[in-house]
Amino acid sequence: MDLGIAGKSALVCASSKGLGKGCAVALAEAGVHLTLNARGAEALEATAQEIRDRFGVDVATVAADVTTQDGRAACLKAAGDIDILVNNAGGPPPGVWSDWDRDDFIRALDGNMLAPIALMQATLPGMIERKWGRVVNITSGSVKAPIPQLGLSNSARAGLTGFVAGTARQVAEHGVTINNLLPGIHATDRAVGLDTNVSSAQGITLEQAKAQREATIPARRYGTAEEFGATCAFMCSQHAGFMVGQNILLDGGAINATL
Asked: For the chain, how long is the longest CA-to-CA vector?
């Protein structure tokens, strides 16, 4: 399928590895020119060169923390006119309700709510002026089914979801769509970290920990960065212009819900 976005320009945040990289690769395959962001310069440059070699698109890089004002400014300066924005950032640490104080919540809000909102506020005017734009926010399946030990993430991502719900309906008439993509467990470094923690806590092997988690997923496997990226690319395509303010769950059926 021709996604109809060849020659467009995208800023993909936290895209040197994992799900962000999956999105960047899928957009590049569709002919989109990229500005990639991550905190680690070495992995970021390696990903950028891989994408240039495979797809021949222009790829700029910005090694910066996108959750900071300076990091966002650097990304926006490098990217120029942005047709496609993919918001992504790592989640705050787990814990229980009694672990967190106000500063913890502010950090979580800065990273997973206020940073993506700031990038949307910076890029939406240009998209509206050009009468075309796509924003995909990578959030979490916890938006549909909150995870008790991820209270900081639950709170921040719920706030972002509320902002998107209203804003998406205000900009849709200008040919600009905003939607959220909600991952479940995928075969990334994050999954390895989670399984390693389970392995240590339960005294089982890493393979056993993974098998134990896979058994809770109706698809009986972890998702891949490639299929996640393909979903993101479709949401950014010419074919998704009627998708407005939606929360698209990609979790292999792990969350048992009808809405």
From this structure: 57
Task: Quickly list H helices, the chain.
Answer: 18-29, 41-55, 69-79, 102-109, 115-130, 151-171, 189-202, 206-214, 225-235
* Phi (first) and psi of residue 86, to 5 degrees: -115, 110
Q: Do residues 114 and 157 touch, judged by C-beta distance below 8 A?
A: no
* Residues 258, 253, 97: CA angle, nearest 5 degrees: 80
Phi, psi dihedrals of residue 35, rounded to the nearest 5°: -115, 120
Burial class (CB in 10 A: 0-12, 13-18, 19+), 93: middle
Amino acid at 128: I
Is residue 181 within 8 Å of residue 136, measured between CB atoms?
yes
Evaluate if pTM is beyond 0.85. Answer: yes
Length of the chain: 259
Tens-digit pLDDT profile for residues 126-151: 999 999 999 999 999 999 999 898 99
CB 30 within 8 A of CB 237: yes
In angstroms, rounded to a whole number, what is the distance separating the alpha carbons of residues 21 and 36? 9
Q: Quick: pLDDT tens for 39-58.
A: 999 999 999 999 999 999 99
Q: At a CB cut-off of 8 Å and minimum separation 6, what does 67 contact?
A: 89, 110, 111, 115
- Whether residue 108 contacts residue 159, with contact meaning beta carbons closer than 8 Å, is answered with no
